[in-house]
């Protein structure tokens, strides 16, 4: 146990949190951050993973080991063959097509038995399970083990409440036209979206069982854990808590558990750029001059759209770091990049092909803007770093996240995307053309009064975010309460008048 943990007075090694992430980067990474935060507070943390995912996060595992954190990473065999998936298909980002999505969830649910068998043998016995909402089958594991369950949503309460209100008010049945705007009922802000932009989680009849499972797990859970913080959306946390009828623990921003460049650079997959080279490049740029461009881990940006983004960045004349994922690389893109673009922009542009050390980049003082797909983790990472955003949502919760950033927080401007992207497809259309990209980058980065005010709001929010996870902050206090809650439950279960003696 670390000194810090002992100092916090919560260093009871018998309190044992088990984390069951869903194997997608945007779900796994914040949960690993959460496990590390709790381990730093002196509780034992077990993180369930799989061989492929464990090899991807090797740097994080090694660093946690070197720091002496009480944290275990446990790879369970991922049953690809049993679920009809190709071997090694252990993360959503390598599922070859949308048609295999159900198979991936099926494989994930088959982890239930080996997980339970493993946990039964553990000393100390698990005190609780924190499970991603995409793993509703953990409800039965927790129940059979006799331990509390917490559902983890790497989402904000603004989105969760919006989705819940849309469902309760029957909006999806009442509106036939996918493109007709409507005001989301029961929010503190006037938020307008279309039906297509606000799909229910797991839409369509084929996911009915999944939706029922998630609701059942939420009902059975002792509480809900979110990657958010009170100062960001207190009203939404409280309303969502009322709707769910149970405690909602806002413990974020979780990425802030990574304190320095060595931690932030090691987060997630092995970076495709040398950390020091990236830092040297950023150091050579003026403060807040660089726009960072990344569309997350699950989107597949088409070659024609990539070319429009590049042309817009070039025309904007601002320095940039631009991430192009491996899956997006193609002869068409390579020929376009090397046929003049890279040469013309080499003095002010850095392209990262593959995995970027995103949290490290966003935390650097040279970064002044983020062109983002509005995945919630990316949004929180920008908020934490005080970086204003250009919002370019693709699917899922991203359009509502855009509304939060643009309308409620007012720390972002829209790229102007109207229609959602369908996961697993690659459209040849460019939803924003080069002029649109240039205009958005200029609006965000060019000197002006509006930019100044947006920056001030972003800076202020970033300060609040960082304070939230420090000792005395709201998320820090919530984490203390969560640990105490689990410890009390553990003590009750040991009480001779209680039913359990583990
Ligand atoms: N990420 C990263 N490097 C990359 C791409 C993504 O570190 O090149 C991280 C990013 O910091 C975030 C997560 O992967 O924590 C992506 O989650 P998000 O919710 O933003 O988007 P998703 O990929 O799930 O759509």
From TrEMBL:
**From what superkingdom does this record's organism come?**
Eukaryota
> Where is the Glycosyltransferase N-terminal domain positioned along the sequence?
14-254
> What keywords were assigned to this record?
Glycosyltransferase, Transferase
* This enzyme's EC code(s): 2.4.1.-
Q: Which SUPFAM superfamilies match?
A: UDP-Glycosyltransferase/glycogen phosphorylase
Picking any one GO molecular function of the record gives: UDP-glucosyltransferase activity
Which positions, given as ranges, span the membrane? none
Q: Which CDD domains match?
A: GT1_Gtf-like (cd03784)
Family membership noted in the UniProt record: Belongs to the UDP-glycosyltransferase family.
Q: What is this protein called?
A: Glycosyltransferase
Organismal lineage? Eukaryota, Viridiplantae, Streptophyta, Embryophyta, Tracheophyta
Underlying gene: LOC103711890
């Amino acid at each position: 146990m670390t000194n810090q943990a002992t100092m916090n007075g919560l260093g009871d090694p018998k309190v044992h949190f088990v984390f069951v992430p869903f194997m997608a980067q945007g779900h796994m990474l914040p949960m690993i951050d959460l496990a590390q935060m709790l381990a730093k507070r002196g509780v034992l943390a077990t993180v369930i993973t799989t061989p492929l995912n464990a090899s991807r996060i090797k740097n994080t595992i090694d660093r946690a080991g070197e720091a002496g954190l009480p944290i275990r990473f446990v790879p369970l065999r991922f049953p690809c063959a049993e679920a009809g998936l190709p071997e090694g298909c252990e993360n959503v980002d390598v599922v070859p097509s949308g048609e295999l999505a159900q198979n991936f969830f099926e494989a994930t649910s088959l982890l239930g038995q080996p997980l339970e068998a493993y946990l039964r043998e553990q000393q100390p016995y698990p005190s609780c399970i924190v499970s991603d909402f995409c793993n509703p089958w953990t409800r039965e594991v927790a129940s059979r083990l006799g331990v509390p369950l917490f559902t983890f949503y790497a989402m904000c309460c603004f989105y969760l409440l919006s989705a819940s209100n849309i469902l309760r008010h029957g909006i999806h049945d009442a509106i036939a036209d996918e493109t007709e705007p409507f005001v989301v009922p029961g929010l503190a802000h006037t938020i307008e979206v279309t039906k297509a932009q606000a799909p229910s989680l797991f839409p369509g009849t084929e996911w009915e069982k999944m939706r029922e499972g998630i609701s059942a797990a939420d009902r059975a859970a002792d509480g809900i854990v979110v990657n958010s913080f009170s100062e960001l959306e207190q009203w939404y946390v409280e309303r969502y808590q009322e709707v769910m009828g149970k405690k909602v623990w806002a413990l974020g921003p979780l990425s802030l558990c990574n304190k320095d460049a060595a931690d932030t650079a090691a987060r997630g997959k092995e970076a495709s750029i040398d950390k020091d080279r990236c830092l040297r490049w950023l150091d050579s740029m003026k403060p807040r001059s660089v726009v960072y461009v990344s569309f997350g881990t699950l989107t597949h940006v088409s070659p024609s759209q990539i070319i429009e983004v590049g042309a817009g960045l070039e025309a904007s004349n601002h320095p940039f770091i631009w991430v192009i994922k491996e899956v997006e690389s193609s002869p068409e893109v390579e020929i376009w990049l090397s046929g003049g673009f890279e040469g013309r922009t080499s003095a002010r542009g850095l392209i990262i092909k593959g995995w970027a050390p995103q949290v490290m980049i966003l935390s650097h003082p040279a970064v002044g803007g983020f062109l983002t797909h509005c995945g919630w983790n990316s949004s929180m990472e920008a908020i934490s770093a005080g970086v204003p955003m250009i919002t370019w949502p693709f699917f899922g919760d991203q359009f509502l996240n855009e509304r939060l950033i643009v309308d409620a927080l007012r720390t972002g401007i829209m790229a102007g995307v109207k229609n959602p992207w369908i996961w697993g497809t690659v459209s040849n259309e460019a939803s924003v053309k080069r002029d649109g990209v240039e205009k958005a980058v200029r609006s965000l980065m060019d000197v002006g009064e509006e930019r100044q005010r947006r920056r001030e709001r972003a800076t202020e929010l970033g300060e609040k975010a960082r304070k939230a996870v420090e000792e005395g902050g709201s998320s820090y206090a919530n984490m203390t309460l969560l640990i105490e809650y689990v410890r009390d439950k553990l003590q009750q279960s040991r009480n001779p008048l209680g039913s359990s003696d583990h």
